[in-house]
Write a structure and sequence with these properties.
This protein has 182 residues and is an alpha/beta fold. 26% of the residues lie in helices and 37% in strands. The chain has helices at 32-45, 87-96, 109-121, 136-145, and strands at residues 3-11, 21-26, 50-52, 67-70, 76-82, 101-106, 129-133, 149-159, 162-168, 171-176, 178-181. The strands form 2 sheets. A 6-stranded mixed beta sheet has the order 3-4-5-6-7-11, sandwiched between helices. The chain has a 5-stranded mixed beta sheet with strand order 2-1-8-9-10, covered by helices on one side. Strand 5 (76-82), helix 2 and strand 6 form a beta-alpha-beta unit. The longest helix is centred in the first third of the chain and has 14 residues, at 32-45. The protein is globular. The relative contact order is 0.17.
């Protein structure tokens, strides 16, 4: 583990009862951007049993998800990949976790479009994947504000229209994001 970042969380969104604190680790092969994508993924998709980088203990699934929600039989119900993710891995995920809703979180709409085209070229199965492209300027500013101890107040995150509103370390963010279905 290269570094640990703590996030004290508060939520003004009555539908999203966030935990008071989470800690995200930055592994040796991960960037600050990957840590920030995991945080935003956690906030956008938060639900009661959402887990961060948990080992699945299933021989049939050789991957560790960035974020996952398991059903009561411990099968992936929601799988979220943050940042770099190969087309081959996405194909295997669709096969190995057939009941999971699969989301890929990218730094920008351009990064999401690039992956979308790679998925088309790789002839991946349609109707299985969802991509989010965040606002690039917002994302880069967030990465620059990241400290080892952070404060986040979540106001809202919606998919219709796709928009985020939150306070991060004393600065207000109100940004749109792009959603693509594949």
């Amino acid at each position: 583990m290269n570094a640990k970042y703590s996030f004290h969380l508060a939520s003004e969104d009555k539908r999203r009862d966030l935990p008071g604190k989470i800690i995200l680790g930055q592994n040796d092969n991960e960037t600050v951007a990957h840590v920030m994508l995991k945080l935003l993924g956690f906030l956008i998709f938060y639900r009661e049993r959402l887990q961060i980088e948990t080992t699945l203990h299933q021989d049939s699934i050789p991957f560790v998800p960035d974020l996952v929600q398991l059903d009561y039989e411990l099968r992936p119900k929601l799988w979220i990949e943050c940042g770099e993710c190969g087309v081959s891995k996405l194909h295997k995920l669709a096969v190995k976790a057939p009941e999971a809703e699969i989301w890929i979180l990218k730094r920008s709409p351009a990064d999401a479009e690039h992956l979308f085209h790679a998925m088309e070229k790789g002839d991946l199965r349609r109707g299985r994947y969802n991509l989010i492209g965040l606002d690039r300027e917002m994302f880069e500013e967030l990465c620059g504000l990241l400290k080892y101890r952070n404060e986040v107040t979540w106001m809202r995150g919606e998919f219709e229209p796709p928009q985020l509103q939150f306070d991060f370390n004393g600065l207000w963010f109100d940004a749109l994001f792009t959603v693509m279905r594949f």
